[in-house]
Amino acid sequence: MGKNFHEIKEIKGFEPRSVMYAEQINEDFGEGLAGFYKAIWAEREGGLSIKQKHLTVFAIACSNNNTDSAVKILQKLHQFGATRAEITDAMMMAAWTGGIQNFTDISSVILKEMEKHGY
Questions:
Q1: How many CB atoms lie under 10 A from the CB of residue 5?
Q2: Helices within 3-66 (DSSP H only)
């Protein structure tokens, strides 16, 4: 496992399966994919914080009606100290971009998960 792979584990807190699979296919491919993760999730001066990045991907998952992903990201948002207002703002933005039907479909699952986390 290369340098990027170990750095992404520090940044994300886990070893992404896609990177592990890519590494099994080809070492350079694995390093390249790990570098992609690193570039996206690393905090940069003047850039989005990790929490803001998770809020963004949460809104995208909700707008795409990807409930499984949204629930996983909600768990990360809880770890990074997101507030109820931040999460609900992201959900409302998802309703704006993904349509009210996606919002309706995903909201019941997300609201139940939010209750589990004390929101």
A1: 22
A2: 3-12, 17-25, 27-41, 50-63
